[in-house]
Amino acid sequence: MEPSLARVDYLQVGVTAQKTMRLLPASGKKATQKVVVGDQDGVLTCFGIKKGEAVPVFKTLPGQKISRLELGGALNTPQEKIFVAIGSEVRGFTKRGKQFLSFETNLTESIKAMYISGADLFLCASYIYNHYCDCKDQHYFLSGDKINDVLCLPVDKVNCITPVLACQDRILRVLQGSDLLYEVEVPGPPTVLALSNGNGGDSGEEIVYGTSDGKLGLTQITGTKAIPRWEIGNEKKRGGILCIDSFDILGDGVKELLVGRDDGMIEIYNFESADDPVLRHDYALSESIASIQGGCVGKDGYDEILAATYSGWLTGLTTEPVHREGGSGEELKLSQEMQSKISSLRNELEHLQIKVLHEREKYQQSSQSSTAVSSVPAFSVNDKFTLNKDDASYSLILEVQTAIDNVLVQSDVPLDLLDVDKNSAVVSFSSCDSEPNSNFLLATYRCQANTTRLELKVRSIEGQYGTLQAYITPRIQPKTCQVHQYQIKPLSLHQRTHSIDQDRPMNTLMLKGQFSFAEIHSWVVFCLPEVPEKTPAGECITFYFQNTFLGTQLECTYRKGEGYFKSDNISTISILKDVLSKEATKRKINLSISYDVNEESVRHTLKLIHPKLEYQQLLAKKVHLIDALRELQVHEGNVDFLLPKYRSILEGADELLEEYKRQPAHLERLYGMITDLFIDKFKFKGTNVKTKVPLLLEMLDGCDQDGLIAFFDAA
Q1: N or C of the chain: less Cβ packing under 10 Å?
Q2: Same-domain status, 565 and 657
Q3: In this structure, are 437 and 525 located in the same domain?
Q4: From CA 231, how far away is CA 208, in angstroms rounded?
């Protein structure tokens, strides 16, 4: 049965971070629960709902931003003590708002993730994990990449402390004390962890993870290894997962999985079979879901899902029916309740309008006085710039706490702007003068009223690197703008992977010179995305990458004084050679560069490119025929006389046009890659073949794979 859920907006606090809202345990079965939420103004708010209105229990004074909020207490007792992470400090409050703990940790950075189990406190900064027991330092671990979340398996079930770190390099690190027990590979960068069923399942070893590219999975963390149980891909191309909870919202006695995503989707997964969860219900809000909880908030006896959004709205999806069935007396009572609510809202609105008018007048007077000081209104921007594996494009997501007026996008490298279905903004392009100013892209997105979230998609060209800038202007007075910068790296379409196929024909680039481990690592960070900025521990490191556009691969192994780069694509090696030598020259470091070129790798890369080329050429031809075929259809009225292949083009015309529109310049990009491959192959032999490029482009149209390989061999 489909759940019937009605939306209720309770209250708005300041901008909230991920996992900063919880429900306190209820005093009795089916009784309403208090909500506690921390925001980026540093205010901790606790409130309950009475007659549909938010009634505050306590509220702290503003301060440093609250980055995490957890509930704690003695094991096997109600978890009703409130703990918040503020900077590098952890504070504890009772459910009445009395502060009983102020623990200044020894972390030099702000706390990014926190978990509490009885007297044990687990804290993580960007790369550092610390375990405290009764506020005494117990264990420490330095992670190889950024830590996004942490939890500990329930001690009462597994009889030992087993912390699990969710790390940006697509790995869950399972610890024992200060040591790494083992690593678990997951399909995307994990952003959130939760105990399965809220308690780790029957064994206490099951954890659910959500990734930044929208995948969901469950794995069992045993004492020696991880056992994957299920994994759900992101077929609908939805946002990344920010929060997870388990709660029986359907009332069938089995807890459902509640998932909140950064594109505003709330999902309910039901375990119909014992194996994989099934998506039963989803609901779209207009901004990212920072926290999600299941419980009873608005009215006794009615369960609901409570979500805290980025801009601080606390929104419930309640099972309480909106229209009650009953006699006229009950309807009258409902209408009276509604009328009093509407009346109080009108009064509040009038009061706010008068307040705004007074403040505006005050501002005008102060801005015109001789001692006037210009004040720029501050606003928060939540941004995310990530590479999508599916279509080899970058998603730029901008979320602002207030409505966006416009966003101007500028780039000093060539980029293709791709269509985004969810985007309702009107885009206009300005002509660019690319020669003196290196200005290749200038586009303005004008947003509709009340748009707080904007998603853009761009595709870069490997080998061309620089900066993409977004100028964000919200609808606030006086007009103000924030500039955010995003680096387009030389090998921008490469994505980290766990392993590569060692049987492919590989080209090798070898570097030797008087450089430190930190220096060569900084060059790799400059060249490739998804590499941690912090220099890895140890003397040597290996990273694996895959090109999301072509499927070619790259292996980077380096240490102090030497680096080895292997790829089945000679163009990747050529880009690395040029960029690394330029970076070394900047630092006045002499490099000894040698390379080993495998002729077979060029044929191998052409075999990877050619099917894509054929598909795009065929798509372009079909799209060019559509107008003529439609004209023929109008004149003749009947298209039965056409060959089946032309009839199929007419039938699928809309889909073909949509696909072609979604992938602008796709064919040109493939032509560019083949041209680069041709030039790079001979560059390593010391031959300049640029004069033969027009001949290559001429033969590309309609050329088969063998003919293309023959041209490369004969040149």
Answers
A1: N
A2: no
A3: no
A4: 10
